[in-house]
Amino acid sequence: MQGNRLLSLDILRGITVAGMILVNNGWGVSFEMLGHAEWNGMTPCDLVFPFFLFIMGISCYLSLVKSEFKPTPKVIRRIIKRTVLLFAIGLFINWFDNAIEGDLLCFGHLRIWAVMQRIALCYGIVSLFALFCNHRYTIPVVIGLLIIYTAILVLGNGYAEDASVNVLAQVDLNLFGYDHLYHKSPVDPEGLLGTISSVAHVLLGFYCGKLIRQKDTVSDKVIALFVVGTILVIGGYLLSYGLPLNKRIWSPSYVMVTCGLASLLQAILMYVIDLSGSKFLRPFGSKRQSRVFTLHSSLLTFFRVFGVNALALYVSSELLAILLGNLGVSEVVYNAIHTIIPPLKWASLAYALYFVALNFLIGYVLYRKKIYIKL
Predict the structure, then answer these.
(1) CA pair distance 227, 239, nearest whole angstrom
(2) What predicted TM-score, i.e. pTM, was given to this entire model?
(3) CA distance 277 to 346
C-alpha cells in the first residue's frame, strides 16, 4: 500500500491503459495477437478493455465506500456530472476524427457509441446501484443480467454475423440509424444492448472491490481474488461451449473469462507488490540484486504513470493519434522505422511501442508535477 491507495491496483490500471494504447496504434500489418478476434474467439488484445471495466468496478466500490454509499445530493450530482462528462468526451473524440479532416458539421453521421461512452454508462449505472441497492444482491444481479442477455442473444440471433438478422445490430439501426454506428463489424461493438453484459462486467469488479475492502489482511484479499478469478475463468470457458467468447457482442462467457483473468492478475500483483513488497521491491546487497531492484522500480514507475492518469492518457492518446495521423507525422515516423526494421509486423509493433512511449512522456510530466486529472 502507498498511503490510502492500493499500489497494485494503480499498476494493473497502468498495464491496462498502456496495453490499450499499444493495441490501438499499430500501423499497417500487425501481429495477430495485437488485433481483435474478427468474431468468435479471443486474442490478448481483447483483454485490455474488459480489464479496464473490471478495474473501474473495483474503483467504484473503493471510491464510494468513503461516503458510506449514502445517496446524498452531492454524491449523486458528482456521479451524474462524471457520467455526462465521460460520454461527452467520447462524442468529442468521434467528432474530432471527422472535424480535423474538414468535416466540422459531421453531426448527421457522427458515431454515437465508442469506448468512452460505454465507460460512462457502466460507471453511471453501477455507481447508482452502489448507492440505492443492497450490495448483498450484487452477484444475483450479475447472474440476472447475464441470463437476460443470454436470452436476447439466443432468441435474437445475437451470434449471427449478419446485421440484417442480428438483434443487437437491428436495435442500434432502428434507434440510432446506420450513419451513427460503427461499420467495421456486423454489430457496433459498443452498441446499446451490449451495455447489459458490460454492466454485469463492472459489477463483478465492484464485488471484488468489496472483497478487497472487507478482508482484513492482504493475504486474505489475495486468496479471495484467486478464488473468484478461478471460478470465473473455469465457469466462463465451460459456458463458451454453448455461448462462444465474443468481444464484439460482449458475450456472457467473455464477461466471465476476462473478469476472472483480471481478478487473477490483480491477485498476483497484490501478492508481489502489496504483500511481498519488502522482499521483491527493496534494494539487495549485491550489485546484481540492486540492478534487479532498479528494474522492478522502473517498471512500477512506468505503469504507475499510466495508472494514476489512466483515462486522461487514454483520451490524449486517441486525440494524438488522430492529429498525428492527419498531419502525416505518423506515416513519416512509421516509414523511418520500417527502413530500419523491414518486417512489416515488427515495424508495426515498433511504431506502437514508440506511440506508447510518447504518451508515457506526457504522463510522466504530469506524474512528476503530481498532477492527477480526474475525468
Answers:
(1) 18
(2) 0.92
(3) 35
